Amino acid sequence: MSDATAVQEQGARRVYIDKASPESYQAFRRAAEAVHAEAVAAGLEPSLLELVNIRASQLNGCAFCLNAHTRTALRAGESPMRLGVLPGWRDTEVFTIRERAALALAEAVTNLEDAAAQESAYTTAREVFTEAEISAVIWAAITINTFNRVSILSKHPVRQTATPQPALR
What we know:
Blueprint: H1 3-8, H2 17-20, H3 22-42, H4 46-60, H5 63-75, H6 80-85, H7 97-110, H8 115-128, H9 131-154
């Protein structure tokens, strides 16, 4: 039995398209690596890129990518508090001007039907980013949206990696 067939027989009988078409998936992975490298070269902080990844994944409801990028952000020093309030980023002042501009662009890329939000996000981005940085944020958002769709349509599982801790009261 092939890997793709074995994967297809798991869970909801979905094809893991990354496993079924590995060359295509690897091409996307290489593109994502290039986008990340170009973004860092343009001057974007890796932590800002993770906020973009997490926010787009929140909007798309991609549990697999949320798990992966939240863990990456926490390992890189992002605070649990900032990640917790990320869905309400407009209503708090814990994010920098650059982060806010990047989050607005990420939302505009993810929710293409809102032309007014796109224009507003782009106008704000022009005030705080260079052209290379704007391009890099948009490419980062396009990239995570692509991976969200791969994981959502494949129904990639999120597995518990550690024993859950009791809630703080």
